[in-house]
Backbone:
């Protein structure tokens, strides 16, 4: 088993700019897509909680770029759990160009989310759901847990 959750993506023309490289905003879109697919595949019970009253608020998103990629490049977006508190989760995302000559890290991103519950006018922090903790455990980096047993 890998120590990351992965989605694969082929870059399309619509994701590039006039120069021909991938427009930066797509990296953030891919983070969101990877997180959504992780929930769908690994923690479907959490999606049911989201349909009820759980809210996953994105607090911070960032991405650092190391190399350019262009249309039709094959990409692996790899999610890992970087940090976990009682109410918040921080993911890292490695963007790896899959090339016949080997893999190359082209960018690295982070995303911090807070678990909240309650009506929109009175949301309060909530513990990370157990189902999500269990789903994330195989993808935790060393030192990811702050006071929680994953």
Residues:
């Amino acid at each position: 088993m890998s120590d990351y959750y992965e989605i694969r993506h082929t870059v399309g023309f619509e994701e590039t700019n006039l120069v021909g490289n991938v427009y930066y905003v797509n990296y953030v879109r891919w983070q969101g897509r990877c997180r959504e697919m992780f929930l769908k595949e690994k923690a479907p019970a959490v999606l049911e909680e989201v349909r009820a009253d759980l809210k996953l608020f994105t607090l911070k998103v960032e991405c650092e770029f190391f190399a350019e990629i262009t249309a039709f490049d094959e990409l692996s977006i790899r999610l890992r759990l970087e940090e976990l508190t009682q109410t918040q989760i921080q993911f890292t995302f490695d963007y790896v160009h899959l090339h016949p000559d080997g893999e190359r890290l082209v960018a690295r991103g982070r995303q911090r989310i807070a678990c909240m519950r309650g009506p929109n006018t009175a949301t309060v922090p909530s513990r990370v759901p157990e189902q999500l903790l269990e789903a994330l455990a195989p993808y935790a980096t060393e030192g990811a847990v702050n006071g929680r047993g994953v």
Observations:
- Strands lie at 5-10, 54-65, 74-84, 88-99, 102-117, 124-125.
